[in-house]
Design goal:
Rossmann fold; three-stranded parallel beta sheet; 2 domains; eight-stranded mixed beta sheet; about 25% helix; Asparaginase/glutaminase_AS1; about 20% strand
């Protein structure tokens, strides 16, 4: 008889891990989100006798991830975690926006049980398909005693949902952590070797997220660069922009041509958060600025959540 809290729920959202190509040697010309999560599980013999439950929530190329899917995913994860027979949740996802989904879920749910996102850099049809091992490792992490919070498991490494960043366009080990952080743990032949604490925090709750069909706050990311033209920022302002994350050069600086439109945004009550476009590091000297230690993409999510909280 199956003991309590042993089941792992695997939620499929599409991505390269469920992708297919007409050629086993084509690692870039594939179509994402073609295989069901049930078929991904069935392709791994080591999972055959484990207490698993599969749910197909979406079939997206994660470059096309949207707010409505985020809300449905967060509520589905929350529902499964509340079940007494569920030990943890695994989510199959595309790599392109994996870091954004992981950050959102950790901030909204801050779960006491493990929520493990996994992905692949090669489609399921590839000779060197990395999805099966990643999924097997993700289930192993979700089953390990003491694991909690939202983490990502890719290429044998376990990353915090609050720190995850995609760092490479092609390699199988395409992820890292910022600012200046390393993995939380590694998976070695199904066993977890932990280095740092699991992500924690206070759950904002899924009630904060707009229902399907309702708008999320309009927040954009703008990168400062040489020769930037400020007309796009002015156009966003006129169109009703509700928040801006500025991916600054270096340690939080921006081109002087943005001075006037940024001041106009602030005077209109539109929040402007600074981050850096640098791959590592945080804005030094800005300890109290929200977003200063986040990637531009995580800062955008944090600002949206802040605006949703302010709306009450």
């Amino acid at each position: 008889m199956q003991s309590a809290a042993q089941k792992i729920v695997i939620i499929g959202t599409g991505g390269t891990i469920a992708g297919a190509s007409g050629s086993s040697t084509d690692n870039v010309g594939y179509k994402a989100g073609q295989l069901s999560v049930q078929s991904l599980v069935a392709a791994i013999p080591a999972l055959a006798d484990q207490p698993l439950e599969a749910e197909q929530l979406a079939q997206l190329d994660s470059k096309d991830m949207d707010h409505a899917t985020w809300a449905r995913l967060a509520r589905s994860v929350e529902r499964h975690l509340a079940r007494s027979d569920v030990r943890g949740v695994v989510i199959t996802h595309g790599t392109d926006t994996l870091e954004e989904t992981a950050y959102l879920l950790q901030r909204v749910l801050a779960p006491g049980k493990p929520v493990v996102l996994t992905a692949a850099m090669r489609p399921a049809t590839a000779i060197q398909a990395d999805g099966p091992q990643n999924l097997l490792d993700a289930v192993a992490v979700a089953r390990t005693d003491g694991v909690r919070g939202v983490v990502a498991v890719v290429a044998g490494q376990v990353w915090s949902g609050l720190e995850l960043r995609k760092t490479h366009t092609y390699r199988l080990d395409a992820f890292g952590a910022g600012p200046d952080a390393g993995p939380l743990a590694v998976v070695e032949e199904g066993a977890l070797r932990q280095f740092r604490d699991w992500p924690a925090g206070t759950a904002l709750g899924t009630a904060l997220l707009p229902d399907e069909g309702k708008d999320w706050p309009w927040v954009e990311v703008l990168g400062s660069h040489a020769g930037i033209d400020a007309r796009a920022l002015t156009a966003w302002h006129r169109a009703g922009l509700q928040g801006l994350v500025l991916a600054c050069t270096g340690n939080g600086t921006w081109h002087q041509s943005l001075d006037a439109p940024l001041q106009a945004l602030r005077e209109a009550g539109v929040p402007v958060w600074r981050t850096t476009r640098c791959a590592q590091g945080r804005i030094v000297g800005a300890p109290h600025e929200k977003g200063a230690a986040l990637s531009p993409w995580a800062a955008r999510i944090e600002l949206m959540l802040t605006l949703l909280q302010a709306q009450g």
